[in-house]
Amino acid sequence: MFLIDDTALMALIREDVPAGDLTTRSLGLAAEAGELTMRARGAMTVACSEEAVRILQLLGAEAWIATASGRQVEGGEMLLFARGQVEALLAGWKVAQNLIEWASGLASSATAIVAAARAVNPAVTVACTRKSVPGTRALSLRAVTVGGATVHRTGLSDSVLLFAEHRAFGGADALAAQIARLRASCPERKVVVEVADVAEALAAAQAGAEVLQLEKFPPEQVAAVVAGLGPDWRGHVAAAGGITAANAAAYAAAGAQVLVTSAPFTAPPRDVAVWIGPA
């Protein structure tokens, strides 16, 4: 689980409530007792319900999770319940609702891609990139992982991925020489090489790459790489670029073992119904 700490959640609160709730305060409702519920309006994979509950708690309300992140629900199902002073409930209302709606959109998109790919090959892995909206990476990766995907890389520090941009600085023999250097320098990491065509993919495998990242290959070219590698190759083929729920099955059928995607990060939010009233 990606842990979203109170400092990050307080930043979300301060963004929406920098100096208190002017309307609630001006109406004299701040100390009234109230209750709040959130329910799914339609089918979704729920994400960040725990963080939404914590937002309400940080504002002084009592709050409980009804549906944990990662569960798939239908419309009408309760996501969370809270009670406390109206000031706390109304201050946290939209922050918590927006978070669940947005994160559940990402999670639901990830779930759909995983389901489409695994209908063809149950062993396929769907890995989401770091191309989230700037400033949202931890929450975005939390959402896609509860949706059933995994993380391609959280940043430049956790994996070895050799791009053409690296090879541009290595001379004519950059591919083989740089793979050899990476394998020697980072023996505990798999060397991933992004390639642009079938020939380059086969050359990278021959040079010692352990994962071939096929950038924007159509499924038929993925199949050509898999055929060219033969049954004895022990590495992994990762298809990357433009992969969605609509074409994930085709990439799985072509033999890609990993589908690398950014599609969930642009998914529309799911709709959450909120009720607030007197306790």
Give a structural overview.
Belongs to the NadC/ModD family. This is Putative pyrophosphorylase ModD. Keywords: Glycosyltransferase, Transferase. One of its GO terms (cellular component) is cytoplasm. It is a single chain. Helix content is 40%, strand content 21%. The longest helix is centred in the middle third of the chain and has 33 residues. With 279 residues, the protein is an alpha/beta fold. The strands form three sheets. It has a seven-stranded parallel beta sheet with strand order 7-6-12-11-10-9-8. Strand 11, helix 10 and strand 12 form a beta-alpha-beta unit. The chain has ten helices and 13 strands. The protein folds into two domains: 121 residues, Quinolinate phosphoribosyl transferase, N-terminal domain (Aldehyde Oxidoreductase, domain 3); 148 residues, TIM Barrel (Alpha-Beta Barrel), CATH 3.20.20.
Q: Return the average pLDDT rounded to an integer.
A: 96
Could you give the order of the helices and strands?
HHEEHEEEHEHEEHHEHEHEHEE
Shape category: elongated
What is the SS-derived class?
alpha/beta
Tally of domains: 2
Measured distance between first and last alpha carbons: 34 Å
Percent in strands: 15-25%
Poorly predicted tracts of residues: none
- Write the CATH homologous superfamily of the largest domain: Aldolase class I
Number of strands: 13
Pfam families: QRPTase_C, QRPTase_N
Protein name: Putative pyrophosphorylase ModD
GO molecular function: nicotinate-nucleotide diphosphorylase (carboxylating) activity
Family: Belongs to the NadC/ModD family.
